Amino acid sequence: MVHDGVVPAGARVRRGEQHARHPVPVTWARLAALGRELPEVVEGAWYGTPALKVRGKGFVRLKEDGRTVVFMVDGIDEQEALIEAEPGIYFITDHYRGHAAVLARLAALSVAEARVRLERAWRVKAPAALARALDASR
To answer: Does domain 28-137 have CATH number 3.30.300.130?
Structure first.
């Protein structure tokens, strides 16, 4: 099992996951594949860039620079907490100030962190019944 990007001795790592000495950077293609593991997620475009949507609502998109993604968050408190806890990963620009979104550096994301962010962002936009169905399936 991988914790904070560290693989215990003798542990097996799934292909594309983090390894303590050789982390695999998260790319948009990898992030999109992880996102498609969530119910009813499709790839599309949002503001002219690749995005993931649930029932037509975008919850994460690639920024124009190709190295940064925008995750929807539950609110400004979550945005601020992420930036404070992990400033090497999360940040905002003036454009996003006051909006329930956070920017993330793709190359700084671990697969585990990407999964958490994807699900949290998905829950912001997914209908409540769909979120309940996901919870019931686990």
So the answer is: no
